[in-house]
Amino acid sequence: MPTDPLRRKLIAIRLAESIGKGVFLSGSVVYFTLRVGLDAKQVGLGLSAAGLSAFVSSVLFGVIADRVGARRLLIVLFTTLAVGFGLYTLVGSAAQFYALVVAVGFIEYGTGPTNGALVGNLVPADERVKLKAMMRSVFNIGFSIGIGVAAVAALSQRLLVLIPLTTAALMVGAALLVTRLPDAPSRPVPVGFKRFAAVRDPRFLAVIGVSTILASHVSVILVTMPLWALNRTTLPHFLVPLLLIFNTVFVILFQVRASRGADTVAGAGRLARRSGYWLAGGCLVIALTALEDNVALACVAIVAGVLILSVAEVMQAASGWGLAFGLAPEHAQGEYLGAFDLHVITQNIVGPAVLSGLVITFGFWGWLGIALAALAASALIVPVAHRSQVTLEPEPAPATSR
């Protein structure tokens, strides 16, 4: 943990936010089905629609953060989220649920790039990746605490209302913590700079596209591996949730260490390349279970595969922060960070269906295909990152200011 007050406040904000998200994400299905009376398809459709809104909100709020200031916008976002989560207690129909869940999701996905822009504005460039690594470790701790709170609330029908109310209270707490941060100095905007430049830059979009493949560990660990283990192997079912807990603990313990050397574009590119090797290795190890149906082989291969994929995860996450901060002009941190977040958003939405479909349909060859895609992305990430970096124009003399 950092010793200076500024970084401690930033981490405290992340902790409050993560506990709230842990409470709601782990308890929302229970809340909406048992208390509101929605069926599983309605809940799934609403949550998917909320996820799709991220494609717009992530970039949009990044641009707004650059325009009005990340600190001011983050206060507004957390306060609005507190109201939104509180309104879940009044939802009584599917139509009300759809409208509110999409609105809340749209606002929620804007907090990521805004928070990143705040870090970029307040913390020196060579310290941003390490701080983000600390914040991710803290996020996993807070999310786990939130799951525990949701589990307690689910013990009783009357206590279910605590799921949205607790999340709303934590969003208020996060907003109050943001008010205690200093204002970042305004950054001059170069003459001729056009908003939404990040999503119109094909070289930057290429970095996002390659990073989307390298982020496949998200879908593989959370969805593809569990589905494969439960449906196509003889692995004891109780091991699956234990492996996910192991992955969470691994990230908490090693995310900061894995971020070393990722504070430059060149270093982040090399780390991303290595993460692809680990991702391919993890998939190939799990693929061994398709060759022989054996309990011992399944246990050893899948446990080893999750360990290898966990290494890929912490490496790729750290490299992503290094690339995002390194390729973002100082005057457009929010916009570029919001655009770079699209690689995780895309993976979260598309990855589970595509990757799970591959391995369930084609077995060993499906796992091999994912591994080959990871190796191809590893070969591409360094050159595409370098090409994107050289397109960044040097900061000209200040022309206009926000």
From TrEMBL:
Membrane spanning residue stretches: 12-33, 45-65, 72-91, 97-125, 137-155, 161-178, 204-229, 235-256, 277-309, 364-385
Predominant cellular place of this UniProt entry's protein: membrane
SUPFAM superfamilies given in the database record: MFS general substrate transporter
UniProt superkingdom: Bacteria
Subcellular location as annotated: Cell membrane
KW Transmembrane (keyword) present: yes
Keyword check for Zinc: no
GO molecular function: transmembrane transporter activity
Domain Major facilitator superfamily (MFS) profile residue range list: 1-391
Membrane topology term: Multi-pass membrane protein
Keywords: Cell membrane, Membrane, Transmembrane, Transmembrane helix, Transport
Pfam families membership: MFS_1
One of the record's GO cellular component terms: plasma membrane
Protein's name according to its UniProt entry: Major facilitator superfamily (MFS) profile domain-containing protein
Organism classification: Bacteria, Bacillati, Actinomycetota, Actinomycetes, Micromonosporales
